[in-house]
Amino acid sequence: MNASDPRSVPSPQRRRVHTALLAAAASAVGVGSLMTSTPSGAQQLRPTPTDFEGPYRPLRGTAWGGVDLMSSRDAVSAGKPVILAGRLIDTTGRPLAGLSLQVWQANSTGRYDYHPGETPGHGRPDPAFRGHGQSEVDADGWFAFRTIRPGGYKRTLFGFVPWTFVPHIHVAVRSAERDLLVTQADLDKVVAQRASTAYGDHAELMRSAAMRRLAAATGIGALAGAAVPEGLELIRFDVVMASA
Description:
By secondary structure, the protein is of the alpha+beta class. It is about 15% helix and about 25% strand. The protein is globular. The termini are far apart.
């Protein structure tokens, strides 16, 4: 088998490789306009694309963290502190209350500390960083997590396909029973979309119950105010679902 020639890979494995590469390519080019038109001419939000969850989702039975991805309230991570926040809505902009989000990510050196399948010696451990959390969205669909900016990393897919992963955070939308959507927040792409009028300003987010919950969990009382405290970066990531 010639590993450099996908046609020489056995068929089932080739399909997995093609699926992974196509998903990664779709993520790389972005989601385009956040708006689309229906046959009637009405404007609707474009659903957030799905993405593969990768091999480092916390294992079944893991005690998930909450809205704070630090190992404790006072933990000081080596990474740059950020707030990942946004709104879970449908294509008409209606908030989808009653659902939960799970998030998981690498630390600032690209290492998934919490996962037993992480490559030995890859990146540096960060005891201050838990790396995963979950929370129900508030009644208006808002969510907010304290985390750090993850590092990018290189991996070999399926044992022979080299790939570079840009900094990203995995996000799963869940009902009580199952995943409804698994996607990724590509941080460079999300930051580039900040100027989009579809996101508006952040005043409503900062006044939300989700932000008050995060303030209580982290002890950062200023989060319940009208602006992001100095030293914290706000990464806005709205999730649009076709249906729940």
